[in-house]
């Protein structure tokens, strides 16, 4: 096996967190979709797809490293939201937490001198820079427009999708 059992366990936990993030973003997408805010909904549908891709990257890495995939239980996401700002801030907080989780995985891989895992995790470190900065932008766009002018946010997102198309 190309990774220690404790690293495999931590990677399995991360698969669950990425899937949890995907579910959380789906719940937010549903909220905006039901309010006919289609661009905001689209933004979060894309984010949800991205998180699932992240989960699958960890999933395949575990298998390639010769570990066993053991999917954890996933907590139900928050599905009631009072404001658009609440949705964006929840997402920003989430991405900051994920960044710390990725750092935790890097620490484990470092302790194991696992250079294969370190190189694999590098991609996620860079990705988190983008995720946090994207969510920061969304929070500030929503703040500037205000909750009564979410159609401006819609127009903005139609011009500037903020999220790149999934690779
Ligand atoms: Mg992610």
Give a description of the structure.
The protein has 167 residues and is mainly alpha-helical. It has one domain (5-159): Ferritin, core subunit, four-helix bundle (Ferritin), CATH 1.20.1260. Helix content is 75%, strand content 0%. It has helices spanning 5-34, 38-64, 84-111, 115-145, 150-159. Helix 1 runs antiparallel to helix 2, helix 2 (38-64) crosses helix 5 and helix 3 runs antiparallel to helix 4. The chain is elongated, with a radius of gyration of 17 Å. The model has no long low-confidence stretch (mean pLDDT 96). Magnesium ion is lined by residues 18, 21, 51, 54, 98.
Average pLDDT taken over every residue: 96
Q: How is the main sheet built?
A: none
Order of helices and strands: HHHHH
CATH superfamily: Ferritin, core subunit, four-helix bundle
Figure out the total of helices. Answer: 5
What separation lies between the terminal Cα atoms?
29 Å
User: Percent of residues in beta strands?
Assistant: under 5%
Structural class: mainly alpha
Bound molecules: magnesium ion
CATH topology (fold) name: Ferritin
Helix-residue proportion: over 70%
The CATH architecture assignment turns out to be Up-down Bundle
Q: What characteristic shape results from the CA principal axes?
A: elongated
What's the β-strand tally? 0
Number of domains: 1
Radius of gyration: 17 Å
Low-confidence runs: none
CATH class: Mainly Alpha
């Amino acid at each position: 096996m190309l990774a220690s059992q404790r690293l495999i366990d931590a990677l399995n936990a991360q698969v669950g967190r990425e899937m949890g993030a995907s579910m959380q973003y789906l719940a937010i997408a549903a909220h905006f979709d039901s309010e006919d805010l289609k661009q905001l909904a689209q933004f979060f549908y894309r984010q949800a797809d991205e998180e699932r891709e992240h989960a699958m990257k960890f999933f395949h890495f575990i298998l390639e490293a010769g570990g066993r995939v053991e999917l954890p239980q996933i907590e139900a996401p928050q599905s009631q939201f009072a404001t658009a700002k609440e949705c964006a801030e929840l997402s920003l907080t989430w991405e900051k937490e994920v960044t710390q989780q990725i750092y935790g995985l890097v620490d484990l891989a470092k302790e194991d001198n696992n250079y294969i895992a370190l190189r694999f995790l590098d991609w996620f470190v860079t990705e988190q820079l983008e995720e946090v900065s994207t969510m920061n932008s969304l929070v500030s766009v929503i703040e500037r427009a205000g909750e009564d002018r979410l159609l401006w946010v819609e127009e903005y997102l139609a011009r500037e999708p903020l999220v790149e198309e999934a690779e």
